[in-house]
């Protein structure tokens, strides 16, 4: 009798898949059924690489921590204790709380997939009993103001953010007139792109996917409205983040920047990209970020990421608009994401208001007799 039970148990276990197999199935399900964002899928794939996988750039190799520890384990044999031990080992390597939580989240999702009745009907998720790490609070938001943004844009217009041209035997190569004109047009476009980013709060993936048919100017050019309908994620053009389009009202400086671009001799039809290369093709977000970084350096500005232009929009708008309006302009899914823009910088108007509330004047505190 005991032998029969052992044989039956062995037969059942023979069909139990490994964590590696379920992880591959989960990635395919997330891509093909759930329609996961390409950038998120890429990040998941990076965490699930096999140890020793060569990086696409550089000479390093992936440590493949998840697969090294759990890849060959049967999916129903992994325990909460060993996952907790694994996460503590990541802590000891000096990995950030955010990165540890990302490893935990991927494992949690894989086992949640294995619990589905139409997959492996796993009775429980061993990751659920492990602890999330407490990340440190984010640093205060910093961003450029209008004058700094214009300084950066003027650097682009002058082409000062370009790398030095190649030389021949110590003498710089002279570019032909046609190439000079093409580069000057690219430089002006860089300036206008950063202006639109600053005044609209659009993500870089949304900017490079913007077509002219989504831009609607007001008759007096006092502003414009942009319909954000597409975005680029990991090189794939798709719906914007959250799969929701939105309308973005932009002020006169951004509308004028777009109008200047619309005066070029080509690539201004409805389906053309607003920001494009000299062949009319979509820009590479990574190249845009590199040019922005060089422009900030050439302008002598403190180093801030390109995404900081979006932070500038949110912070400036939060000074005078209801938070729900700022949320809708930026396309946040939740209001708590927008909350961080409320106190990004000291508001001079708020200081004036509190001084007035306490009766403080330039001469000091006004005290009633």
Word description of this protein:
The protein has 369 residues and is mainly alpha-helical. The protein has 2 domains: 11-129, DNA polymerase, domain 1, CATH 1.10.150.130; 146-162 and 177-349, hpI Integrase, Chain A, CATH 1.10.443.10. The chain is built from 15 helices and 9 strands. The protein has helices at 2-14, 19-32, 38-47, 65-70, 80-92, 97-114, 146-157, 177-200, 204-208, 252-261, 285-298, 308-318, 323-330, 335-339, 348-357, and strands at 167-168, 171-172, 215-217, 223-228, 231-233, 236-238, 246-251, 360-361, 364-365. The strands form 4 sheets. The chain has a 3-stranded antiparallel β-sheet. A two-stranded antiparallel ribbon has the order 1-2. A two-stranded antiparallel ribbon has the order 5-6.
Please render the helix and strand layout as text.
Blueprint lengths: L1 H13 L4 H14 L5 H10 L17 H6 L9 H13 L4 H18 L31 H12 L9 E2 L2 E2 L4 H24 L3 H5 L6 E3 L5 E6 L2 E3 L2 E3 L7 E6 H10 L23 H14 L9 H11 L4 H8 L4 H5 L8 H10 L2 E2 L2 E2 L4
Antiparallel strand pairs: 1-2, 3-4, 4-7, 5-6, 8-9
Helix pairs in contact: 2-6, 5-6, 7-8, 7-11, 8-10, 8-12, 12-13
